[in-house]
Give the backbone structure.
Amino acid sequence: MKELNLWLEVTSPIIPGENDFPEELNEIATFIAHTSKEIPWHISRFHPDYQLTDYPPLLVDTLRKAREIGKRHGLRYIYLGNVLEGSDTFCYNCNELLVKRACFFVEEYNIENDKCRSCGAKIDGTWR
């Protein structure tokens, strides 16, 4: 998809005791970073539901640790899923808030002509 210039985002549902180990999260972040640091990584919190009720809900702290692992690998856009935090977009260059979200609503938008209003860095993706 990257070679065909198609926009790609990766979602990783993190399940306690299955793929929540730092080594595995590191492998996921390494793979994404080697493909392209511009690929957004959505780290999704597991909660017991449907046919997977034998596992406990994932601790939010594990998502935060995964986000830090992704940042260390230079991933530009990392989002936390199934929690009430971590869905905003920040500039990879100056760390200014670009898009503030509340659930599925945009509350603030600081991208102009696909660039950060603060520093002018090109923001990856389609922003129209």
